[in-house]
Amino acid sequence: MISKDVVIIGTGFSGLGMAVKLLESGRDDFVVLEKADDVGGTWRDNTYPG
């Protein structure tokens, strides 16, 4: 079993932003989980006008 101090659920804007901030602060003891095959969250799943 793998042990991590932080688990980020989802690779939307907030999840990816949190991962970046953790790396910038010198932390690498985290994992990012995503149910889909690609990153993007709401922006991946929805098409907006424009």
Question: What characteristics describe this protein?
Answer:
50 residues, alpha+beta, 32% helix, 16% strand, elongated
Characterization of this structure:
The chain has 50 residues and is of the alpha+beta class. The protein has a domain at 6-38. Helices cover 32% and strands 16% of the residues. The protein contains two helices and two strands. Strands 1-2 form a two-stranded parallel sheet. The radius of gyration is 13 Å and the shape is elongated. The mean pLDDT is 91.
In spatial order, strands of the major sheet run: 1-2
Shape: elongated
**Strand tally:** 2
Radius of gyration, rounded?
A: 13 Å
Structural class: alpha+beta
- Name the quaternary structure: single chain
Helix proportion? 25-40%
Along the chain, the helix and strand elements come as: EHEH
- Could you describe the largest sheet, including whether it forms a barrel? 2 strands, parallel
Q: Between the first and last Cα atoms, what is the distance in angstroms?
A: 45 Å
**pLDDT < 50 runs, ≥5 residues:** none
Strand content: 15-25%
The total count of helices amounts to 2
Taking all residues together, what is the mean pLDDT?
91
Describe this structure in a few short sentences:
This protein is an alpha+beta fold and 50 residues long.
Annotate the secondary structure layout.
Layout: E1 6-9, H1 13-24, E2 30-33, H2 42-45
